[in-house]
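Async update (no meeting this week)

Hi team, since we skipped the sync, here's where things stand on the single-chain job. The sequence we agreed to prioritize is pasted below, unchanged from the tracker. I ran it this morning and attached the output directly underneath so nobody has to dig for it. Comments welcome in thread, and please keep replies under the output.
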Amino acid sequence: MSHVIEQLDKYAKELVASGLVVGAGGNLSMRDGDYMYISPSGYDLKEIKKEEWVKVHIISGEVYGSIKPSSELLMHLACFRENEEITAVLHAHPTYSVSVSSTGKEIPALFPDFPAMVKDVAYIDYVIPTTELLANEVANHAQKAQVMVLRNHGVITLGKTMNEGSLFFYAINRGISEGFCH
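Output:
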């Protein structure tokens, strides 16, 4: 568990420092055997204390402790349930990603690192956030996609490690911000 919490703590702070997440505008989780740890609801990612990451049983969805998990809990659970190879899920609402995804366009592979790293990007039409409907849509793509662009909402990346999920997150957002916005 301590390694998982250290990774979550490190990458949460890095996402905020990158400017891709502001305050409580994102969530991340990491698998630890039959459990996952997820960011708590309403917390600024850079201010989460190590004991505040919320433990959840992946199959049953049982939440341990008194701290409420991210409102996107169902979406994270769907990813881990559908794809046993992943250990990390990152989700946020970067400005450029939300803007471009709202136009209905796809993100071009403008930089060599993007197609070299990200093999499959799924585009999901708008579904109300935090719902079982969204979790089901995400589950439909979790086996194959490393990146999911949620139109009018944000981006999800799935990684075999937290580092991989983070690299996918930066790659997709670099493609969006530099390809469309500069």
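Quick observations from my side:
Residues 162-180 form the longest helix (19 residues).
Residues 2-180 form a domain with the L-fuculose-1-phosphate Aldolase fold (CATH 3.40.225.10).
Reply here if anything looks off.
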